[in-house]
Amino acid sequence: MTWPSFVFPFGAWFFLALVPLIVLYFLRLRRPRQVISSLVLWQAVIDDQRVNAPFQRFRRNLLLLLQVLILCLLVMALMQPFFSEELDSGEYVPVLIDCSASMAAVGQDEQTSRLDRAKDQVRALFGTTNIALFSFASTGKRLTEFTRDEHLLQQALDRIQPVSLPGRLDDVLRVTAAYARTHPIDRVIVFTDGNLAETSPVELPFTLDVRRVDVGGPNAGITEFNARRTGPEDWDVFVRVAGSGQELLETKVQLYLDGRLTAEDTAEVAVDESERFVFPIQAHRPVLLEVRLVPQSEDSLAADNVAWLSLPEARDLRVRVSPNLFSWQHALQVLPRIDMDAGEQSKRAAYDLMICDSADRQGSEAPVTVYTGVIPDDLRDLLTIEEDFAEVVDWDRTAPILSHVRLSQVSIGQQVILASGADEGDLEERGYEVLVHGATGPLLLQKRQGLNVSCYFLFHTDRSTLPYRVAFPVLVSNVVETALKRASLSEVSAAPTGVLPPVAVEPNREYTVRTPTGERFQVTSTATGLLTGIPAAAVGRYDMLDGDDVVASVGTGLLSAQETSLAAVEEIRFSELSVATQEAAEPRPGTEQPLWWILAALAFVFLLAEWWYFQRPREAVG
Amino acid sequence: MRPGMHPGGVRPIVTGSNQQMTSLFSNSVLNRIERMRLNPRRRLTNRARGEHLAGKGGSSTDFADYRDYAAGDDIRYVDWNIFARLRRPYIKQFLHEEELHVVLLIDASASMLFDDKLLRAAQLAAAFGIMGLLNTERVSVYVAHQESERPAMLPPGTGRMHMRPLLSFLEQASGGGAVPVEEAIETMLRFHRGRGIAVVLSDFLTFRDLSRSFNMLYSAGLEIWGLQILGPSELQPDVQGDVRFVDCETGASLDVTGADDLLNVYHAQRHALREVIDGQCRRRNGRFLSTDASEPLDRVLFDRLCRSGWVQR
Asked: Containing domain of residue A427, as a range?
């Protein structure tokens, strides 16, 4: 049986009014005295009534009982009872509320968002059982412990605001699954707009009840914003605008360069359609680009109407090559916009690419480093080099530096031998990925350390036929391309919301970050002069302040085709089962509707009945 | 004091004419009463001579039967003519004329002061008394009102010469006590001797059982004539809503909610009470009649009592 919940339970204090009601009733009940000849007959009447009418006592005080009933009904109406979902009162139910960007989509009235609708649905569950509120976008966040305290839950619910992040269930489901170890959780209710990934790797230890809130009209948004360098100071800026409505939605696309309108165009998009715009610009210094959409008609979601892109300073790729690696030097010399340093001593402390034939870096750093004929120190116990003939057995064709590189029939004069009992799993445990496999061991390893990438040719390339193969210049070109991307010198993509990309500043200094919402917080740069891990949940421009001076600015955009589409998945496939997303029903009549008006109507009916009973015309009794 | 309740007792309702024999009823009614006589069911009479013929042998002039002579019989009743013919003595029996004792017991408790019930009781008692006196029965009257007190009593008398004292006694009868009718009966029997009719005029509104007192009446050789007198306030009570009833005799109170809704039950109880008393009277070869104090006296006397067989014209 489901007991009703009360919106205003403190109204129960008004039940104390029963006390004065009863007292006043009995004080008022002064019966008129009537002297009669004898009580014989009336006593017999009362005795007869008590015998024949079991509810005589009730009938004697019918007026009082009716008044008590009316008062109780009125007090209960004041408490505003309502029936909620058919939840077991002892159940522990985590309620996950999607607050991703698409949940901010508003409907035709432009007042009620998907999140508002979801909150209404969640509010109906309050007081029925133990509820723990979670919000999630790209990550999950627990808002309350399991509680029945409606005030606490309401406060937590009020704190939930949509964020400019894509929605993902995985993280919050893992958090909820952790709670299932300490609480008997049988099911989890998810309130979402269904704008989620169709698959999830999470194994569900509970039943998932996904309730979809569909609100929103047509929408147009920026889903891609990047730039490609076409000349020393020339960039092509690409902007993709996608739509979600059935009808074509016209919108203006405006490009601002350091706050100045530079280009403008008009897009017409609908569902499953997108338009790509190319704006050629020139920039010889770092600039901040902003693209804005100005919808010419209804637009459900505002968060995807703006995006930011930082263009770096236009310069050549700075490459340091060991002086003995002639083959690499020759291959690099033919490539454009390369500033190569092949001297005995390195000229700079920082390069974009380093190609070394020894582990000695001479004090220089680079985000991309290629070693040739070098075995990493931490692998010397697993790998040994023997002077023997070796051949390439297989290679990872999806690795960026091996793209379009054919290594078959490459002869190698050094053989890398994996220690007895060791396998590639041991290498992976130490952070190395095997890109090229030999007969007796790996030939090319890749290791990622933070943002830096190091590639280790375990054999010396000059001891192989690789420099004489067509694959070699392709390999060098891939390495340069990777370095260019790392240095943002060839392609730049706008940063999506979530975490800001690393910002280069002075090392080991404290800076203030000013968010688009005006909030400020302190961050400290790393020893390498980077500000990393800055959360960016809102779309807009983030300024790094040193005191009051802006030392760097980075902008973010939603840039999520999934969020812009406002589409909902019908089913989410988990590792072992699929869960259908069902549209959340309106508050069910008789179950979720408030009952106060029914009680008030009943009180009115009882009032009328009382009036009729005591004021009805008396019939002559003979 | 409640309207309809007479403060003292019998209210003189007929006054202003010197020719009136009594204030209880008019002379025309009196004349009609004088031509009526009581009609008892059984011949419960006294040994003394009277106008009622006893079934057993008596000394009247009306022959009844013969029987064999037995030793000790009065030889004056031997039929010597039969003896002469048959040579055997036979006793000649005559119908015995004995007196009928009429006991009039008036319940004059406070409840009888309502709605002139005591007046009506006095009127009826006077009527019964006159009928008895003029038919040479011995009429005595007891008026009981106070508990544990000797009732006001009119000693037995007979003949027209006792009519004036009877009427005076009844005219001056007062009420106001709290004696229950069964106790009044038992008290009366402590003073009365004689067989006949006991006319009990009361409202019979008592909590106790009347069986014992009726048995005592029956054992005393009195035929029980129960005459219940109820007033309009008892026959058609005007009550409404929640009322606290107060017993005028005992002062006890009873709270009744929605009294008007209980009138049907009230009337059922009233009829049940009447049936009970009627049954108790009939089981003792008596009579019972329930009357309305507001009903015209001549209708009660000359219509209902006649039709019920209480009296004969």
From this structure: 317-486
Confidence of residue B96 (pLDDT cuts 50, 70, 90): low
B67-126 residues touching A, CB cutoff 8 A: 110-112, 114-115, 117
Provide the domain count of chain A: 4
- DSSP lists the bridge partners of residue B94 as B58
> Closest approach of chain B CAs to the CA of A67, in angstroms?
16
- Same domain? A151 vs A208: yes
Asked if the model's pLDDT at residue A618 lies above 80, the reply is no
- On whether the CB atoms of residues A121 and A133 are closer than 8 A, the answer is no
Per the CB < 8 Å rule, is A45 touching B266? Answer: yes
* Degrees, nearest 5: CA angle A291-A293-A294: 135
pLDDT in tens, A513-557: 999 888 899 999 888 778 888 888 888 889 889 888 888 888 888
Residue of A nearest to B257 (CA): A60
Within a domain: B19: no
Pair A350, A479 in one domain? yes
**What are the chain A neighbours of B7 within 8 Å (beta carbons)?**
none
| Chain B residues closer than 8 Å to A61 by CB | 257
pLDDT computed for residue B278 by the predictor: 94
Q: Which residue is closest to A61 within chain B, CA to CA?
A: B257
CA of residue B100 relative to chain centroid, distance: 13
B53 plus B186 within the same structural domain: no
Give the mean pLDDT of chain A.
84
Q: What confidence tier does A340 reach under pLDDT thresholds 50, 70, 90?
A: very high
Write out chain B residues lying below 8 Å of A35, CB-based.
Answer: 2, 245-246, 248
User: Which ranges in A287-368 belong to alpha helices (H)?
Assistant: 326-333
C-beta atoms of B244 and A34 within 8 A = yes
Query: Which residues of chain B does A41 touch, with a Cβ-Cβ cutoff of 8 Å?
Result: 205, 234, 266, 269-270, 273
Q: Do B57 and B191 sit in the same domain of this protein?
A: no
Looking at the complex, does the CB of residue B234 fall below 8 Å from at least one CB of chain A?
A: yes
Q: How many domains does chain B have?
A: 2
Is B257 close to A32, i.e. CB distance below 8 A? no
B262: CATH: 3.40.50.410
DSSP state of A500: P
Nearest beta carbon to residue A60 from set B247, B253, B257: B257
Per-residue pLDDT band at A29 (split at 50, 70, 90): low
List the beta bridge partners of residue A495: A556
Average pLDDT over residues A397-423: 90
Distance CA A289, CA B247 (A): 105
pLDDT interval class at A219 (50, 70, 90): confident
Dist. CA B59–CA B92, nearest whole Å: 10
Contact A341, A318 (CB under 8 A): yes
Listed in sequence order, the residues at least 6 apart from B104 whose beta carbon sits closer than 8 Å to its beta carbon are B125, B128, B129, B139, B140, B141, B142, B199, B201
At A408, list the tokens: 């078959």
Q: Residue A462 belongs to a domain with what CATH number? A: 3.40.50.880
